[in-house]
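Q: How do we represent a protein-ligand complex in a form that can be generated token by token?
A: Start from the inputs.
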Amino acid sequence: RTVYVNGEYLAEDQATVSIFDRGFLMGDAVYEVCAVLEGRLVDTPGHFARLRRSMTALSMPETLDNDELLHVHQELVRRNALREGLVYLQLSRGVADRDFAYPGSETPPTLVLFTQAKAVIDSPLAHRGAHVITQPDLRWGRRDIKTVQLLYPSMAKMAARAAGADDAWLVENGLVTEGSSSNAFIVTRDGRLVTRELSSDILHGITRAAVLRLARDVGLVIEERAFTPEEACMAQEAFMTSATSMVTAVVSIDGQALGDGRPGAVAARLRTLYIEESLRQAE
Ligand code: PMP
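Then emit the structure tokens for the protein with 4'-deoxy-4'-aminopyridoxal-5'-phosphate bound:
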């Protein structure tokens, strides 16, 4: 693979980052993941806007502008002949002596991008639907900033695996926040679409926003509010959204089957609409 590090395109085994990088030492880095379909990138404006938001929240110094970022993304897709998968971007505050205080703004950030091939449209999990378990949400309080502090979501995912499930939905104060790496939705028995409102308790998913817009366009009633695991278990359907899983149906929660135990119709419809729109808009 060809990867990108601070202005250079390199073979992956030639690419290096300092052991003093604050991303490595302090988790002082933000990231984005853009899906690639048919060799083109999905919703880069949304991902770049969220990257700026994360950078502002952490007072990170400027990096490439959006046109330059798009160029690097497209160049990596081209050089790696990537048809379907993702481009990962990570921006850290750069290299400095270890200190909790941020280094001065003269310290250049570290920007790394790489591609990863993955079946996005024809994903096996989307076909059969995901089994999820609930886990306490023990993450920090600024989940709206997309940082690389991903240890707790990894632990939650491993707990799901250990329980024979695919993923975890996180619960705080008796309410579902989101999935370990996705936003969580339910469809009530009378057909309303429910997903938690935006706040610092969840990541503001780019796919979440697109799916809500598509759902509104087709006339679904939308309620942006928190829901309990009990309400989710009683729902007609559930699904989760993320850039590379798009819309993935959830077929059971804590061992309790939803609806008829197969991916639901609303999830399937929204997945199709989202894929169609992404293919139309990708660049
Ligand atoms: N929530 C969390 C915690 C995530 O890690 C992700 C994916 N990175 C999402 C939601 C979905 O965000 P997006 O649709 O922008 O990929």
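The chain is about 30% helix and 30% strand. The chain has two domains: 2-117, 124-281.
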